[in-house]
Amino acid sequence: MNAVGDFTPSRLRERARRVAAVAARHADAVDRDGRFPREAVEAMKAERLLGAMIPEDLGGEGAGLAAVADTCTVLGQACSASAMVFAMHQIKVSSLVEHGLDSPWHRGALERIAADQLLIASATTEGGIGGNMRNSICAVERTGDRFTLEKQATVISYGDDADGIMVTARANGEAPTTDQVMAVFFKGDYTLERTSTWDTLGMRGTCSNGYVFRGAAPVAQIIPKPFAEIAAQSMLAYAHILWSALWFGIATDAVNRARAFVRAEARKTPQTTPPGALRLAEATATLNSIRSTVLAAMERFEAAKADPDALSSVSFAVDINMVKVETSERILDVIDRCLLVCGILGYKNGTPYSLGRHLRDAHSARLMVSNERILGNTANLLLVQRQDVGLFG
Amino acid sequence: MSADIRTLLASHGGLPVDVATLADDADLYGAGLSSFASVQLMLALEDTFEIEFPDRMLNRRTFASIRSITDAVTELVAEREAAA
Ligand SMILES: Cc1cc2nc3c(=O)[nH]c(=O)nc-3n(C[C@H](O)[C@H](O)[C@H](O)COP(=O)(O)OP(=O)(O)OC[C@H]3O[C@@H](n4cnc5c(N)ncnc54)[C@H](O)[C@@H]3O)c2cc1C
């Protein structure tokens, strides 16, 4: 037992390492060409990692948040884009596992995902709404027991390579923008018309192009729960924790490169501590506090999970938002210090100490649901939150 | 009290529908109550009824309907009066 319960990372760790080795080999090409990390995703499928969180009776292995977060960290050290694809898929699966087990169609969907190792993408972002995920313009249009949905989906990561997409929309044509549902579509249920191309500073391999999404499916494919509850009770927590875990991975690899640099310097000039060692120590301190933040968030989530009121409470929302904001800010700090350590060899591409990709990838973190937006929402919640008085709450 | 709560909901809830058309147990989130508006409403309730919502009540369920808000406010007003 440790801070996050009977957390046994080793359950997925060996397989995660093998996938990471594949991802690392192709990371520079994926970044340079802005292409889907297909080798790494094929390795995830071969290692059967895409069904890891799915309950055993549905063909998965019932892995918990901690084991999956640990995998995100391992992959994040190898290739940020591969790790992000993995994380986003698991976030989608988590919504089905947490909120779909009472629905026969969604149980069947989980069985398919596990059996065929299907990769699931996400379409929450919408033209005219941006990252304000708890609002939709598009709506589900029902006719009998079927529905259609058209969405200006301005960002769908790996949309072209996914086997299914989960899409948010208003519950019906008359519903207010906040009354949303989430529907699951498998290939064959939808078409994607490309509207923009993902040519970005970093995270280039997520291939998060813009599309017009057009789907048609039986009504049974809509998760029978308001999206508001899915978001508050599990999706935000899974997303912020898994993203943070992989961002921590990116920063960890930067620190490892800086450490390798300092060690090489130390060997060149024995009996002296290389000047970079000080910055390395600073970077390590921040890295450790990022790890603590992520671990504490997991513990907080596990503790709140048993109680829906705790999960939808103001204090939980504040805490889970702050994890994302903190982690996404601080990894930049860490990588930046590592760059000072490695100097030109860190600035150049193609050296063992290169940090350009790390820094560029890390710059996506604050924008991935804008920290400005999250801080704005949190600031509103802080108007009513009462601060705990003790160290242990 | 329910009438006062309805008035505050109308002025602070930012709902796209007329509050008068909502039953006491109608789902306010379904009616369009946003997280931002629920905080504004909470502040207005605290002012009007001279109460403070404790952490345990700061959740989605408390603000799910006019009835659940009324229950919470009734409880907090009773606590305040008992303490006075
Ligand atoms: C690598 C990556 C992968 C992604 N993959 C997906 C995906 O698969 N599916 C998906 O749906 N989305 C995805 N996204 C989109 C992402 O989750 C956000 O929704 C999106 O980045 C927000 O877009 P935006 O910055 O244009 O819009 P906005 O959220 O509108 O923000 C634009 C800017 O406006 C300002 N702003 C807006 N609102 C506020 C506010 N309330 N307070 C203060 N400032 C504000 C901020 O400065 C912000 O940067 C991905 C993003 C990244 C970086």
Structure in a nutshell:
Chain A has 393 residues and is α+β, with helices and mostly antiparallel strands.
List the helices and strands and how they pair.
The complex is a heterodimer of chains A (393) and B (84).
Chain A: H1 10-33, H2 38-46, H3 65-76, H4 80-99, H5 104-116, E1 120-123, E2 141-143, E3 146-156, E4 164-170, E5 180-186, E6 190-196, E7 209-218, H6 227-268, H7 276-304, H8 308-311, H9 314-342, H10 344-347, H11 356-362, H12 371-382
Parallel strand pairs in A: 1-4
Antiparallel strand pairs in A: 2-3, 3-7, 4-5, 6-7
Chain B: H1 2-12, H2 35-49, H3 66-83
Helix pairs in contact in B: 1-2
The complex binds flavin-adenine dinucleotide.
Flavin-adenine dinucleotide (FAD) is lined by residues 84, 88, 121-125, 130-132, 155-157, 203, 206, 208, 364, 367-370, 372-373, 376 of chain A.
What would your notes on this structure say?
The complex is a heterodimer of chains A (393) and B (84). Chain A is α+β, with helices and mostly antiparallel strands. Chain A folds into three domains: 106 residues, Orthogonal Bundle (Butyryl-Coa Dehydrogenase, subunit A, domain 1); 101 residues, Butyryl-CoA Dehydrogenase, subunit A, domain 2, CATH 2.40.110; 156 residues, Up-down Bundle (Butyryl-CoA Dehydrogenase, subunit A, domain 3), CATH 1.20.140.10. Chain A is 52% helix and 12% strand. In chain A, the strands form two sheets. In chain A, strands 2-3-7-6 form a four-stranded antiparallel β-sheet, with no helix packed on it. A three-stranded mixed β-sheet of chain A has the order 1-4-5, with helices on one face. In chain A, a hairpin with a 2-residue loop joins strand 2 and strand 3. The longest helix of chain A has 42 residues. Chain A is globular, with a radius of gyration of 21 Å. The N terminus of chain A is likely disordered. Chain B is mostly helical. Chain B has a single domain, classed as ACP-like (Non-ribosomal Peptide Synthetase Peptidyl Carrier Protein, Chain A, Orthogonal Bundle), CATH 1.10.1200. Chain B has three helices and no strands. In chain B, helix 1 crosses helix 2. The radius of gyration of chain B is 12 Å and the shape is globular. The two termini of chain B are 20 Å apart. Chains A and B meet through helix 6, helix 8, helix 9 and helix 12 of A and helix 2 of B. The complex binds flavin-adenine dinucleotide (FAD). Flavin-adenine dinucleotide binds next to helix 4, strand 1, strand 3 and helix 12 of chain A. The site of flavin-adenine dinucleotide has 24 residues of chain A, from helix 4, strand 1, strand 3 and helix 12.
